[in-house]
Specification:
The chain is an alpha+beta fold. The chain contains 13 helices and ten strands. 44% of the residues lie in helices and 16% in strands. Helix 6 crosses helix 7 and helix 7 packs antiparallel against helix 8.
Length: 331
């Protein structure tokens, strides 16, 4: 009996690798390709569905796909943003935290389901629909390459996510030398009057590229709320001992360290230079003992504790009291 099913449907059960090679050749530098590209390579809808079902290909946007599976939600967001940009009929560029994702900057509380693009021409008025957010670009605000400037992307992220998100991204951008402090101030000024812009200037004014992680930035901000000036990545030197601490309270013998706990997850020493969890714990204990021998109080803060700035303030206040009392004692 003749089987009249479409050959494209039969291909779903065929080995995925030849089909993946067909579309992989058409993928761009990000691993993206569209359904029309796949059809051009002889991979129809049913075959494409088979590749998606096997995990060899990921559907990232309407009619757009990526080879393989993104390694993180941030990477998936970036691929979705790039695909959305390619699907637009008018010129656009990545904006807000979608542009930050392209730059590899931290996305703290961003709604990764929403893609942000900016119109690069004045044709038509930007509109948003579904998970796509379209924005106007102030005249002359684009870079020569037609991108939203880093400072503008940072500040605009603060409008939709909150000023703390802008501060976190600004710290990372300063550390990577992607932006200058003056550019951050200019971007905040340019967005003045927009909903959510009132705190942008003050938050970006305290940006500091010496903070090396999201947790360190949040901890530094907690000290800002306490009105305690701190020195990020302060160098402490003792007899045969040198340490860089996350935060040192100015004029005091109190150190604050952010403990992300990630480094303690390894089961054994690695060739990449990072110690195992046990080795790291021992090293941290010896380091803290050395700091205390020098007369420093050490306040260690974990990720979950960052949500309780008042609790941090109580612990820091107790550490300051102990340190000052010890320094007043006659030797």
């Amino acid at each position: 009996m003749t089987d009249h099913r479409h050959m494209d449907d039969l291909a779903v059960t065929a080995p995925a690798s030849p089909m993946l090679a067909d579309v992989g050749v058409l993928a761009d530098e990000w691993g993206l390709f569209c359904a029309a590209d796949a059809r051009h390579a002889g991979v129809g809808p049913a075959r494409l569905a088979g590749l998606v079902g096997s995990g060899a290909v990921t559907s990232v946007w309407r009619g757009w796909y990526a080879v393989g599976a993104p390694e993180s939600r941030e990477r998936l967001h970036l691929l979705r943003a790039l695909a959305a940009q390619r699907s637009m009929r008018v010129p656009t560029t990545l904006s807000h935290y979608s542009e930050l994702a392209r730059l590899g900057l931290p996305l703290y509380r961003a709604n990764l389901d929403h893609v942000h693009l900016a119109m690069t021409t004045g044709d038509g008025w930007p509109r948003s629909r579904g998970s796509l957010r379209l924005h106007p670009v102030p005249a002359g605000a684009l870079t020569p390459e037609g991108r939203v400037p880093v400072a503008m992307a940072v500040a605009a992220t603060g409008l939709v996510c909150g000023p703390l998100d802008a501060l976190i991204a600004a710290d990372a951008a300063l550390r990577l030398e992607l932006v200058a402090r003056g550019e951050l101030a200019e971007a905040a000024e340019l967005l003045r009057g927009h909903p959510g812009s009132a705190l942008l200037g003050p938050f970006l004014a305290i940006a500091d590229g010496r903070s090396q992680s999201v947790g360190e930035t949040r901890l530094r901000h907690a000290f800002h709320l306490m009105r305690l000036p701190v020195i990020p990545q302060a160098k402490i030197v003792g007899r045969g001992f040198t340490a860089y601490v996350d935060l040192l309270v100015e004029g005091e013998m109190v150190v604050a360290e952010f403990d992300g706990l990630v480094k303690y997850g390894r089961s054994h020493d690695s060739v990449d230079g990072w110690r195992s969890g046990r080795s790291e714990l021992v090293a941290e204990k010896l380091r803290e003992d050395a700091l205390r021998d020098l007369g420093y109080e050490v306040v260690r803060v974990t990720w979950s504790e960052l949500a309780d700035p008042r609790g941090i303030a109580v612990r820091v206040g107790a550490a300051l009291t102990r340190s000052r009392a010890r320094r007043r004692r006659p030797s």
